[in-house]
Every structure is written in structure tokens, then in C-alpha cells.
Amino acid sequence: MPKRTSAADRTPVRVVIVTMDTHLASATERARASLMDELPGLQLRVHAAAEWSNDPSALARCLEDIATGDIIVATMLFMEDHFLPVLPALAARRDTCDALVCAMCAGEVTRLTRLGRFAMDGSSGGALALLKRLRGGKEKPGGSGSSGAQQMKMLRRIPKILRFIPGSAQDVRAYFLVLQYWLGGSEDNVANLVRLLVTRYAEGPRRALRGTLKAEPPIDYPEIGVYHPGMKGRMSEEARSLPAAGTKGRVGLLLLRSYLLAGNTAHYDGVIAALEARGLSVVPAFATGLDARPAIDAFFLDGDRSRVDTVISLTGFSLVGGPAYNDARAAEEVLAKLDVPYLAAHPVEFQTLEQWGASSRGLIPVESTMMVAIPELDGATGPLVFGGRSDAAGVACEGCHRACVFPPAEGGRDMHACIDRAEMLAARAEKLVLLRRSERANRKLALVIFNFPPNAGNTGTAAHLAVFESLHNTLASLRDEGYTVEVPETVDALRERIIVGNAPALGAHANVHARIDASDHVRRERWLPQIEAQWGSAPGRHQSDGRSIFVLGERFGNVFVGVQPAFGYEGDPMRLLFEKGFAPTHAFSAFYRWIREDFGADAVLHFGTHGALEFMPGKQSGLSGADWPDRLIGDLPNFYLYASNNPSEGMIAKRRSAATLVSYLTPPVTHAGLYRGLGDLQASIDRWRALEPDADVERTDLALLVQAQAAALDLAVMEPAWGTDAQAHVTALRDKVHEIETTLIPHGLHVVGRAPSPEERVETLQCVAETAHGTKLEPAAFEAILAGQADGQVLQVAGLEPTESNAGLVRELARIDKLLAKDHEAAALVGALDGRFVRPVPGGDLIRTPEILPTGRNLHGFDPFRIPSAYAQRDGARQAQKLLERRAADGEPFPESIALVLWGTDNLKTEGGPISQALALMGAKPRYDSYGRVAGATLVPLEELGRPRVDVVITLSGIFRDLLPLQTRLLAEAAFLAAGADEPAELNFVRKHALRTRPSTAATSRPRRCASTGMPRAPTART
């Protein structure tokens, strides 16, 4: 064995840490400096996967260091984008480096662990079995909330148990010590992690270092506690250690313990300072691991009573789970127990603040999914960026008018607060606290109704909603609950005061409640130059008499019902939404300023689906102070009555206008039936079918009549006459009329505050039974359900066998009926306006997704990692097959190309049905990672597919693009894999067309992978 040449051996030792983000980078740098006296030859480097997508050179440096690393530690690599690019390099180095520790990673990475005689690949025998026994069972979803503390307790206990067991058990002990050091990731613990691995596992030229370093036991820090930059020691297990409190209200903050231990807290400190500057008392709490429930129980709850007025998560992850998984049900229950507003703010982790500020997109897909979409499943609302890393280039951030230049952080990779966003977060929290603490009689509310398309008699319209009837019921409900509200006697009187009033005298399309003088507007409009660049000098031409701007609507006591101004372009009203660099009109900006400042609303309720605020110019998600939806809504608490079947556009309202959605029921559905000419056509077809076989003359005359009636309904052409082919045409026409007759259509409009009638409930239950369950029941069965009869009685009336399946159907229909029989929405609006927690619910169609009941809850989309669902994949494959069979039945050849338009709403309603149809046509299906999340695509072998792959030309709606970035990549990867498959062109039309378009690249049988992510590059061919 080589002997040491000095007390401080300068033998080079290369330690490489590869992890998800940079939050331990500065602590690691400080640890490196503290180790230089003991290990002068130490090279300690941290590589963050979060940096690779925007800086391919960062990945190249990581791969280079892995290739030469002596001791390698990989942690928190859960996502394929993060671990696939380095997996081959780690595998290649595994058996030649001194030690490879892979902890808290995806299984593919963890299995590469090798410490002495201990390996995670199954070859360690007794050591691995011992590890499994010590690990114990997993907590069930929705458990007690103590899993993080229990796991840490076991983690500290295991090394003590193993301390005196010889052999490979000592390597298992070292693995658990590494976990402890990393989870307690302070400078001291990181330094001792390095000492432990070097002194125990150094090999080759470094072997002389073995046994020369003393690794102190991991330092234990509080598992749950509070943090404050002004508190002695900054962390404590007692809330009373926090500095003196403000008087306006109390805000609970949830922080990541790992950032606190690493001393990387500037982004948290900025939010705390902003909240305290508004006179709020702040309780910044943390818990071990990624389950926040122990911190909530300890510091935000006093038994069943909340100690805080609102909760803000600054973690960027789900409340229970983190980046690897989420337990939304458990999160919902603890938040419902708190019963206060829950905001989820986040730093930008996977790009720099400068990149985010300059981006028209805002958040990149992984941020949008992990930090916005997943917390929404818990019930979070108001997503907001509050900080992030800087690129340290000294260039001003373009996110808002402040143009911040961030000072260099320690190690160049620590977090900063975005002061503009932190102040906006604090302002919104303050308004929610004040709303919650205010008396109903003193609250001022603004209810906004819409006028789209403008100037076409559409004031007060919304999707599936009887607006004025619902508005009248809502005003009455508010009055009954203690608000100071004047309620007109009738719905017509309400409508008259809002739509007519003084409108004829002033040439407006609704009552003019207030006028904003042009000089006042010029003085107070912060972004006047941008508006005037688009719409000319104030007051503009929209809702103006040339001297002032009209505020349309009417006041009813402390409630103002306002008519949202038109978008701006009467001939092309959607133009404003889809062109960059635009600004809202003078009237639009002044309307929201008047509500906030002149009327002094405590909250705004956007009434129905939907208006224009959330579609104003700006980033897609992760808005900054330069984006118009954020400017217009400001800090005003925003609630939005939204159709339960439209989660896609609802998500845009949540993410771009900080809205808390309150769902309303879409109208009951009924069979379309036959009306007008369709009924006459059906009668003629029935007469045709009833003719005697020898009635040739009457058959000829009747065929002419049927053809004429069908042509009048655009179901056939008038010329040429059917002649001898009449039989086939009439048969096909009969099927078409039957399809129209049985189509489900909405029955009227929904009215908030009024439950569906018994007749409407029966029609809805009938459609649920037939469409969702494929069972047709007698009308008497539904009457029995409405009467509350027992399952057995209903089955007997329905003539069904008393099987568990049939009984389950009856119970489900009875559950739906019970929820439909009562209005839940008026009370939900009152609760939301009281500053209470609005429980989350997936959006969707009642027939397909009865889980939307009861309405009056906060809509969210489906888990983006679970789209398309298993059901959607089966249904999409069936639809694809039907499409191909229909084409064959029509005598058409097998299609080489099929064009599809994918809409965000349709895919969220069906959990990805149209996506699955596109994949099925291409002969592809989703690929899942080890956590069961959709991670990419894989091809179905041709022999299993049994037909050629169809080239699908896909057009994505803007909402699909914004809300489903992972699914966009899924489709792109499927297309690229098909284009690169080594298959005959006549059996793979994707490849055939790609070869024709780009023969030099498409001919490659294996797709090229992106240097920054390791994933296949998106195709540039037609698909």
C-alpha cells in the first residue's frame, strides 16, 4: 500500500455530485474550502440537471467529470430528462470508480449504486436483503402525514444498528450515512459526507487516504420547525421564537428544509420581508422530506382550528410528495381542515430569472407541469414566480419595469428573490387575509359579466349558463348571507337596469354607471404609452364619448355588476388574443383600475365562462409584471364561476389571472329527438319501409319525396335522382336520422341557485346509464331511484338480476341523483368570498366524469403525467379502428395521411382520447417511467399492429400547446420514432413521407437524441 508523504496528502481526489438542482451548490463550495487543509488535492464539483436544458455545455462538463470521477454521488434524479443523459456515463464508470452512491433517484439510477461489497443491482445477497428488511413497508396514500418523520427516525436508527455488524453491513451503513448527510445538507454535513467516502473507499493512488480522515456523525437538525432570517440561529422548533408579529393577519409559509440547511434562502427572505412590510405576521415552517403535513399540524393548526388566515407554499412541489409523486387526496384533506386560501408560488428552478423574464413562453414545460399543474391537483391557486437563479451575466432582467440586475450569489448559483413578484405575492396574500377577516355587510364585490361577440346583443352571455337568472339568485343569496345588497324584484328588472338604463341616451350598449375623465385616465394609467401606441390617444374610441371612458354596469348596494369591455376589434375580436405586442384598449384597462381603486372592491367574481382578461397579451404561464393579465387583476382576489366541463380554458384563467374557480353544472342532457323537417323525413322513411313488395309505383314516388326532404335538410343531394339505388340511400338515411335522434344535447341553460328538476334529473341519469355504463333502464327504475328506494327494489323494478355489478350501477345513479337534487353553487360562492378553501375537482363532462359532482369546487385538469389514461388509450384505439373501417366501407384505399386537430378542452374532458387516437393511427403508445408517469412514446411492432402506420398531420390548438406540453412531446417522439423505424415504406407512411422530405436524416434507423435532455429530438417532417 502506498504510504502518505505528508500530513496533508496532495493526491488528487475527484468527487462529483450530480443532482436535480443547484440549491446545495454554495454549501458544497463552502465544504470544499473547509476540506482543503485535509485534502489539498480535492476537486469537488456539483452538477445540476436543471441547468442542462438551457445550457448543453453544462451537460458536457458533467459527463466529462463523471468519466474521470473517483467518487460519484447521484441524488434526486427522478425525471427521465434528468437521468437519461447521464445514465450511460454512470453505468460506464460504476465498476472503475472508487464508489458510486445513487440515492433518492429513479430505480434505473439507484440500481447502479456500488459501495465496497454492497451493490443495489441484486448481487449483494445478504446485504441487500438486510436493507429491504430495514426499510420496512411503504406508507399508504393518504396516511397520517408522519411518513417523513418516521423515515428520518429509521434513517438515523439504521446506522446505529449496523455499527457493530461486520462485513458488507458496514457498506450498507455507509449508504445510510450518506443519505443522512445529504438530507441534512449543511456545509458541515456535506464535508463529512466527502470525508466518509474518501476515508472508506479511496482506491488506487488514493488508497493511502483510507482511514486518515475523521467523519463526524451527521448533524441532526430539526425535522419540523420554523425559519426566519431575523431569528437567532435562523431555525427553531418553537413558533414563539419568531420575531414580533404584524397585526393585520397571519400567513403560513411552507419552505423546503434543504434550502434552509444549505443557507440558500435569499428567495425565501424576499417573500418574508415583503409580507412583513404589509403588516402581516409570518410563520415560515418546514418539515423533513417532501410532506408538508407535519409542519401544518404543528404550526398552522390548533386542533381543528386554523391559526393562520392563508397558506402559501414556496416549495414549488405538491404538498404531499414532491417531484417524484403526489398524494392529492391527502393534501386536499389537510387543506380542507385548515379551510383557508392556499396559494402555490414557486421559484424558476430549471432556467434563470433572466431567461424567464425575457421569454414569451414563461415557464418551460417541466416547470409548468411540476410547479403549476401538480399543485393544482391539491387545490392550489394563484401560481406565481417569486425567485430563482441568476445567470450572473450582469444583464438586467426583462421580466418587468424594474429591470433588476442580480448581484453575484455565493458560488454563482444561489437563489435570488424577484422583488416585483414577491411584492405581488405579498399584496395578494394581504388582500385575501383582509377579505377573510372582513364583515360581510362591509364587503364590496364586483361581479363581471361579459359581452362577446361585442355589439351583437350578447351582453350577459356565458357558456351553458342563464346569466341573469343566475345573477339574480346570487345577489339574493348574498343578501341572505349578510351582504349589503339591493336585489331587484325580478330578473327582468335586473336585466333592464344593467343592459338598458341610460344606454340609449349615451349611445352605449349597456348602462353607463361611471365616467372616467380622459385627463384622470392619462394621469393614472401606468402603461399609457403602450396602450396609446396601439389604440391612439386617450380616451380612445371604445366605450367613450371623446371626453371620458364609460364604465358599464350598475351598482346594487355594495355589489357592482360590471360589463367587461369588448376586446377591441369588433370585426376580428380574437385578434388581440393571438398577436404579440398588443395591449388592451383604454376602456379595458380603465375598467379594472376603476374596480380596484375607485370602487374599492374587496374581491371580483367573473360570472360565467368566459371573459377576455385571462387571454390578454403576456407569457403563457409564470406571468411577470410586464404581462397584461397580471397588470389588470393586480392584487384583487379573483373568483371565477366556470363551467365544469371546460377545464382547459379554466386552467388558463387560473394560471394567467390568479383565479380561484368555482364550478357550475352544465345543463342536463337529453336526446335530441326529431323536429321540423326531420320528423316529416322520418315519417316518409317509415312509410317506405312499410310498403308492400309489389308497390313499385308508390315506392318510386316516395323515393322522390324522401330525396327532396333529405336534400332540404342537407342530408342528401337533389340531383341526380336515386333511381334503382333508392333502397341503399333510404337505408343509409334511416341510420343517419336515427343517429341525429339519439344524439345527446344540452337541455336549456343552467341556473345557479336552482337544482335540476326531477324530470331533468331522470334524463341525465338515463344518459349516464346508457352512455357511460351501456345499460338501458325502464323509466320506472329512475323514478324509484328518485324516490329513494333500496337497491333491491330498484333492480326489481328495472327487471335486472340482483348482481353486485347491477347493484353498483344503481348505487352510482342514486349518488348522482342525490348530488343533483341540491344546489351547491350559491353556498360555494359565499364560502369562496369568505376566504375559505375551495376543494379541488377535475373538470369534465358529467356523463363521462360524474366525479365533477358536487359542483361549486375549484376546477383543475387531470394529472398531466397520467394523460392519456388507460381508458382513453383503449377508446382512442377503437376510434382509430372505426375511422379506418369506415374508410374501407366507403370503398376508399387505406389512407397514407390523416389530418387531426387536437383541442385542449376535448383532451382534458376525455383524459386524452384524441391524443390516443393519433398515437393509435401511427401505431404508437405511451411509454412510462418507473413512477408510472408518461415519459415518452414507444412503437407498437408492425406484426402486432397488423396494418401500416398512418402519417398523422396534427394541428394543435393554442390551449393544447400551453396546457399539455408533455403530450406535445409525446406525439413528436412517436412521430420521430416512426420516421426512423427500419420498416418497409409501404407499411410505414410516416417513414415514407419523412424519407421524401428529408432523405439524409430520416433514413437513420435510430432517432437522434437531444444533447440537453437525452430525449429523441422532435421531428421536422410533416407529422
Q: Could you explain how this protein is built, in words?
A:
By secondary structure, the protein is of the alpha/beta class. The protein is built from 41 helices and 31 strands. An eight-stranded mixed beta sheet has the order 8-7-10-9-13-14-15-16, with helices on both faces. A seven-stranded mixed beta sheet has the order 18-19-20-17-21-22-23, sandwiched between helices. Helix 13 links the parallel strand 13 and strand 14. Helix 7 (147-162) packs antiparallel against helix 8 and helix 30 (779-786) runs antiparallel to helix 31. The protein is globular, with a radius of gyration of 32 Å. It starts with 12 loop residues before the first strand and ends in a 21-residue tail after the last helix.
Count the E strands. Answer: 31
Q: If you average the pLDDT, what whole number results?
A: 87
Q: What portion of residues is helical?
A: 40-55%
Strand order of the largest sheet: 8-7-10-9-13-14-15-16
Which band does the percent of strand residues land in?
A: 15-25%
Output the structural class: alpha/beta
Spans of at least 5 consecutive residues with low confidence? 1-5, 136-146, 1000-1023
- End-to-end CA span: 62 Å
Sheet with the most strands? 8 strands, mixed
Shape: globular
**Rg, nearest Å:** 32 Å
Number of helices: 41
